[in-house]
Specification:
The protein is 46% helix and 26% strand.
Length: 156
């Protein structure tokens, strides 16, 4: 066998290195689905973080109101003169120059919902916060009890 014959044989034995049109179209379709999935996951992740921030801010507002109620005396709690029944708070997310999201809150002091012998010495406090974002209304609620001989007696 001569060297020329070896060269011919190696040229004939080489594999074909091109892709067909069908293979290219299928791979581009798979690649397109991957990119769409990636960007959908990123956008939904950002939206989940935004909703978590809004929930955290609503919880902060409710805890702040609850702590001010716990510092009031028993007479202030049952009279309700210095406790606003409706209030608004704003949330300024990072990068937003406008007023952001407005939270609307209500505060209600009601009688103790159960009927033990000490029910006249207790009140139930309900704080509700609602806001609208992404076109959907959101509401959070927090409840607690205040007693005549509670924490406020240790502070004053």
């Amino acid at each position: 066998m001569t060297t020329i014959q070896k060269g011919k044989r190696s040229r004939l034995a080489r594999p074909i290195c091109a892709f067909s049109l069908v293979e290219v179209m299928i791979s581009m379709g798979i690649l397109g689905i991957c990119f769409v999935s990636l960007y959908t996951g990123l956008s939904s992740g950002v939206q989940v973080i935004q909703v978590a921030r809004e929930n955290l801010r609503a919880t902060q507002i409710m805890v702040e109101r609850m702590e001010t109620i716990r510092l009031n005396s028993w007479e202030q709690v049952i009279s309700g003169t210095n406790l606003p029944t409706a209030f608004t708070e704003n949330f300024y997310p990072p990068g937003v120059t406008s007023k952001g999201i407005t939270y609307y809150g209500t505060l209600a002091v009601t009688n103790f919902p159960f009927s033990p012998n000490y029910k006249d010495d207790m009140r139930q406090v309900i704080i509700r916060v609602s806001w609208t974002n992404f076109g959907a209304p959101h509401t959070r609620e927090m409840r607690t009890f205040v007693a005549r001989n509670g924490m406020q007696n240790y502070i004053f």
